Amino acid sequence: MKRIAILVCFALAVAAGADARAAGHGLDQGAERHLDGHGFLPSFYVNDPWTATTFQSIVGGGVALGLETPFLDPDGEVLYTLEGDVFYVSLGFGFQQRLGETWAVGMTYAGVVRTGINAATLVTEGANVDRNANLWVKKRLLRSQASQLSVGIDWEYRKTFLISPYDFVVESIDSGEIVEADLLESVKNWTARLTVDYAHAFSPAFGLRANAAIGLYEDPDARGVSKATHRAGVMLEYDLAPGRSIPVGFTLGYTKGFPEDDPGAGLAGVLVGIWYTGREAFTIGAETGFMQLPAEGDAEKLDALLGLLTIRYYF
Predict the structure, then answer these.
(1) 219, 188 Cβ separation under 8 angstroms
(2) Which terminal Cβ of the chain has fewer Cβ within 10 Å, N or C?
(3) What is d(CA 294, CA 257) in angstroms, rounded to the nearest whole number?
């Protein structure tokens, strides 16, 4: 089903691509991201309202500090706690194709490797590989000299492979037989959302973007059970190029998702970015997130530092 959906999206993009470019409405080559003289910048965490044809690549990594794993006795009392750090590496790409004057279809595919970096977290957390495919359709509703508003439908499929020596030992003890315990586990779920994306330019130097999404996701611990989810983000931008002829821009934003204990939706934190702004049809920059990572149940959230290098081309 996932492969069929991807093929359908690309078939629509190829069929409509030539006609869309022939329309020539003046919003190609990065022109759409310019409002009132301000060139808006990308973000991995706060979506934008553009419907232009784009391609982007993403690479990054990060570290989460102070992960605590309690070990309990048969009565549920804490015997001792292991503490350590976790390391992340991520890689992904995305493509969006404009359809006609105001529509766009797109996809992203990304992978994240998560592993402990000392003895404590290697035992308790092990390692996991998270693969994420995202498909969307977007419609531009409003464009003025200083603002643009778009709405869309977003579908996400996530599959995670987990290797946890600690969980393997616990399951072996509980079941009484090692053969009944799984060292390698896989978890998969989907998320469907309605999205609203907005951008407004205050001046050639200053701009603001905001996005919100609401929908349903499949509980990874209870297949077939759907729960509500929502996410919101806001980002301020400042570009030095208009006033000082320095092709450097800065972004400052915040994002938060719900439910807070879901790894795919509960990410929250402050975002800081620095970008090259010297070309209309090309942007490159680094975005750093000072984040709180989701934690299951009553466990405390993890403080993490995540960094991404993003390159985006506009066609």
Answers:
(1) no
(2) N
(3) 10
pLDDT digits (tens, 9 = 90+) for 263-305: 667 889 999 999 999 999 999 999 999 998 776 555 567 789 9
CA separation (Å) from 163 to 120, 129, 204, 246, 300?
A: 14, 9, 50, 48, 22
* Each residue's pLDDT tens digit, 95-143: 999 999 999 999 999 999 988 887 767 776 778 899 999 999 999 999 9
In CATH, what number is assigned to the domain containing residue 60?
Answer: 2.40.160.40
Q: Which domain holds residue 206?
A: 2-314
Nearest to residue 277, comparing CAs of 107, 33, 68? Answer: 33
